[in-house]
Each structure stands twice: as C-alpha cells, then as structure tokens.
C-alpha cells in the first residue's frame, strides 16, 4: 500500500557534506541534493522522517566520479518531542533504478543499475562504480523509485520517491607550459581568443560596467563564477578594474601574456596591482569581502584558475590564468 | 563599436625600406650537432647533451636549447658549452671570449647567475627575477632585475651597480653596451593620456634610451608613441658592427585578434628608421661574424629557432634562444599551494548560449532575428533577462547551446551561415 508522505524538499548548499559511512577524506560531493519526507501518524501522533541525499562523489583530483546515495530514518516522539534514529527497511523499484548520466554539455546519456534492498537499518549508503571524468563533460546521478518502511519493516510505509543530483561539469583541462597553452587555446591573439564575453561591473575600469572578453574554452568556468556572484548577490565585491583578452607581450619580455590567449582575467586591478603580495578585498561598495573573489576564481570544483598571487618572484594578485608553468 | 577586430590578412608594415619574403629555406649539408629538420625545433631536444664540446675561445653564438647551453659556430655547427652548475632552469646564457660563460639560473623566487670561466665557477645573486644577461666591453656582467632596472657587476660580485630607470618611467631592461660606460636600454614608459591600455604586466609603449654611467644621465633616443588600444614594444636591442643599434619593434592593437607586426629597426647616428618587416615572433639573436642571426618562436612547439638573416630571407641554422628567455616552464609559476576552501563552491551546469548583439532596442533585435535563417531558435533578451550576457540599455539575440554541442562549434555554425555576424556574435553566460 502506498501512502503519500509530506515532501519537504530542501536543496542544500553545495558544501562538501559528508554522507553516512566513511568516504575518502578528500572526496567532494558536487551536485549534492537533499530531500526530507515526513508524516505524522495517528493515533500516536509520532512523526516519521526519511532523509535522502544524492550526489556525484568525486575524488580529490577530480578524475573519477560515482553515484553516492544515502538514506536515514528518524522517529519523533509525540509525547517527548525527542527525535531518534529509527530502523527501517529500504526498497527500490524493480530493474534499473540508479543511473549515472553523462554528456557534453548536458548529461543525457545514462547507464543504470539495480540497488539492493536492505533491512533493519537507520542509516544506509549505496555507492556506484567509479567512472573516469572527462574535462568539459557534465555528470548527474539519480535514483528512481525508492521507499522505506519504518520500524524495521513493521510500518508505517513510506511513498515511492525519485531523487536527482544537480549537474557536475568537470572543468576543462588546464594546460601546462607554452606549447600546451598554444595547443589548447590556439595561438596567441587567435580569432577565438575573444569569442566569449561576460558583463562585469567595473569592466575595463568603467564604473558603469562593460564586457570582459575571453576564450570560450573557459566560458563554463567564468559562468560558474558569475552564477556564484548572483547567488550571493555580491557584484559589489568587484572594484576597478576587470580585464580579459588583450593581445600583448609581457613587459620586458618576449613572452606573450596569457591574456593574449583569452586564458586570463584580472579583477580589482587598481587595489591589487602586480607586486602586491596580499589581496585587498574591498569592493566597489566599500565593504571588505575578504578573499571572496579569489576563492571563487580558484575553487578546484569550478575550474581552478591559477592565482597570480602565487608567482614566487613577482606576485600578481589581480591576475587569474587557466594555465600553469607559464 | 565592439572592441574586437579580426583581420583576414596580415597587416601591411608601414614605412619599410625593404620587404623580405620571410620564407624559410632548408639548409643543405647540415653540420654536426643537433639537426634542424625542416626548420623544426622542439622544447625538449632529443639530442640533449649529445653535442661535441666547444673549444675555448671558439667563435660562435651562445644560446639555450631546451635546458642546455650551446654554441652555434660560424660554421653553423652546434656544440655544447662547458657545464655550469644550475639548480633551477637555465633561462639564458651569455658568453665572453675570455671571461667564460654566464647562465641565468631561474629559481622559484630570486634568481642567480652562475658563471664558469678561467678562474673557476662562481655565482652571483641576481637580486630578483633576472633577464637580459650580457657581457659589457669591459668584461663585466649586466642584467635586468624584475624587468625594471639594470645592474652591472664585475664577475666576482664585489662591485654591483644598480641603474634605476629614467625618472617618471616604469622600468628599463635589455641593456646593450655601445661603449664601455654607455649603454642603450629599452625603457617602459608610462601610458600616455591617449592610451586606453593599463600598465601592469604588459607593455604599453617602449622607447630606447641611452645611459651614460659616468654622468649618471639618461637620454631618450626614439620617439615611439601610442594611442587608443595600440601598443608598441621594443625587443632585443643589439649593437651592430660599426656601432649602430638594431632592434625589433613589435606593435599591435591589444583588442584585435591579429598578430602584431614585427619590424627590424636601425638606430644610426641618433636617427631610427625601419629596415625590414620580420615574420611574426621574430627577434634578434646576435652576430655570427658579419651574419645577423635572429630568433623565431615556434610557440606551438614551445621552442626557439635560430635563423641566419640575409637579403634572400631566413635560413635555419640551429635551435635555442640567445637574447631572449628560453621557454622551459617557469619555476615561479609552478609553485601553487592548495587553494583555500571556497565559502560555498558553486557547481552548476553552466548556462551558456550564443548571442548576437548588441542592439539599441528590442525592436531592432527582433528585426535582426527576422533576417536569420532560423528565427524561431532565437529570443530577444535584455540585461534584466541575461545580466551577464548584455549590458544595461542594450539587447541581444540568444540561442541556448544545444545538447551535445560545444559552444565554439555552435558559434562557428552561426558564423558560417551568417558571415556578416563574425564580429557581432559571442558565447555568453545566459543564466541569471
């Protein structure tokens, strides 16, 4: 018998939250989604809750990924108000019910497997097999048709649910050294080097904003950064001046700047000039955002820009480039 | 107007007295040493360390090939220079007929200069990031620190003189000595008011200046200027037999997607004039007797090629970089600590789209859409709809990136169908 529980779906922030069990310490869980389903039964008035989490589990080097699915059962006593773990039986629909999906740019190609039913446990985790992750490819996992029966299978019975993770896109490969940079981005000053653009506040030193140009190869990375700004409503963290593509050589050198490939962006340049060894996070609105901007520019999950503040001889805190060794 | 310009053809040089074909000819009867097959050099030479040792005092041009210091002789044969103890990366080499060989030892952090000569081996602290190492006529060493200032030192390091750049300029580099106590250097000048380019890591405008060490005075020798988004750099000044100074001027538009022009100039009795258009990424390397040798960057292979310049063109004679830095990975960029955890890492499916624009009104955008081959696939969007794709007060046409298609591929398909949109189409961030 199927009964409808009250779905209390909560999309969590995407912090690397640990699931049950003991995953590898440095693994990350991009695309994490949590859903909570509860109902109160009569005549006891007790509330039974199922908490489900699903994510793409990614190794710390970002090269391998797998499905990770976690269920927890709880009972809240109507008399005492106390909540405790509640042993439950977990069931999945027949046939393939767990899916690993991939594709570029959308994860539309899926492979399935049948997760095993388990009994008498308040906390269970299922994992899939490891898959190699390709740069620029998107991944998503989902579980169709799962439910639990609380009190170690003696009831009440939960409804059937489906749950999908958000999409994780493995960042494009970051080249290393001059020849790799040339081969990944094309030659310096090539026609594609400014084929992508984004509107930035304080772009090109304009307080009314403007376009910053870059190579489409890093468009997804920049898109995530701008999305992050939107989520946090932190465009005020930008300050003079934001720069992108520029066909120029490095001062005092015959080397081409990484900007000549559309592979670099400078942000808050006036407050963070070349030669400074620290980051000044004061934004255009006067608020000090600390390392907010550098953090999102260099997060490994969204593309891992190399931050120029790490140049050991001449730090360049304004500078973020998608190449190392050059 | 969009700040992008894509050139279909190479830009014509201005004010040139001689145009070279720029062709590369094969070199018959290649001498012993590293072969230059079809003028191809590689970042990691297969013949590393396999060259015969150069004789003391043997005439030739010193260079760094991969990680090895080599000598290309007047017979164009490549020989190995005496080993110099290097802890990091051999970035550049300078050779003196009697003082020995000096090598920039590029380290993470401040560099050092390693010297091997008749008096044995020693090293000097570079004082920062070292480049442009050269010997003076008096047998001293000169180099650039952090692309900003020049230092001159005896080989023992007992007497090190720092030469600050001219007042109100950003730096001086690439010294070359026209007399024992007079040098010519490239000066990084502050961007003029007419420039829209920021100073910083990249050149805006360079000029040649001379410096009289006895008087401690700088004198400006050339008068290159820039405006808008055009920049002008000077690279590899080199004293020619007879005392003239040759140099390469590199100039381009920072916001254009076309290679800048490379031009050979001669400074003769205080007057600079353009001599030749050079192929892209070509700078001066030095002299082999009376033969001018140039360096050409093969960026795809991450290697420098040495070529003999003549009126007929350029002939490959070897591999390696002479006056410029080698392309070996920079140890200053390899040291990358673990990124601190972002407060809330974002992992979203990027919402990318192809955009056409900008338009001054929604109606103008709609009119443009009607002229497209597939108008139904496009939507009109303003800043409120796509805040990262279009500025306030402008409108664009948006087409989401199709599943299973690369953003660049979809952009190129649009441009193939509508060449007139070459400079008005982009990959953009469509989400809010």
Mind explaining what this structure looks like?
- The complex is a heterodimer of chains A (326) and B (432).
- Chain A has 326 residues and is mainly beta.
- Chain A folds into two domains: 6-169, no CATH class; 178-321, Muramoyl-pentapeptide Carboxypeptidase, domain 2.
- Chain A has four helices and 19 strands.
- In chain A, strands 1, 2, 3, 4, 5, 10 and 11 form a seven-stranded antiparallel sheet that branches. In chain A, strands 6, 7, 8, 9, 12, 13 and 14 form a seven-stranded antiparallel sheet that branches.
- The longest helix of chain A is centred in the last third of the chain and has 14 residues, at 219-232.
- The radius of gyration of chain A is 24 Å and the shape is elongated.
- Chain A starts with 5 loop residues before the first strand and ends in a 5-residue tail after the last strand.
- Residues 1-25 of chain A have low confidence and may be disordered.
- Chain B has helices spanning 331-334, 362-370, 407-417; strands at residues 60-65, 68-73, 78-80, 89-96, 100-106, 112-117, 120-125, 130-135, 141-145, 149-153, 160-163, 169-179, 182-189, 205-212, 217-220, 230-239, 245-253, 261-268, 271-278, 282-288, 291-298, 303-310, 313-319, 352-359, 379-382, 395-400, 425-429.
- Chain B has two domains: 49-278, 6 Propeller (Neuraminidase), CATH 2.120.10; 352-429.
- In chain B, the strands form seven sheets. Chain B has a four-stranded antiparallel sheet, with no helix packed on it.
- Chain B is elongated and about 80 Å long.
- Mean pLDDT of chain B is 87; it is low at 1-35 and 342-347.
- Classes of the chains: A mainly beta (326), B mainly beta (432).
- At the A-B interface, strand 14, helix 2, strand 15, strand 16 and helix 3 of A face strand 12, strand 16, strand 17, helix 1 and helix 3 of B.
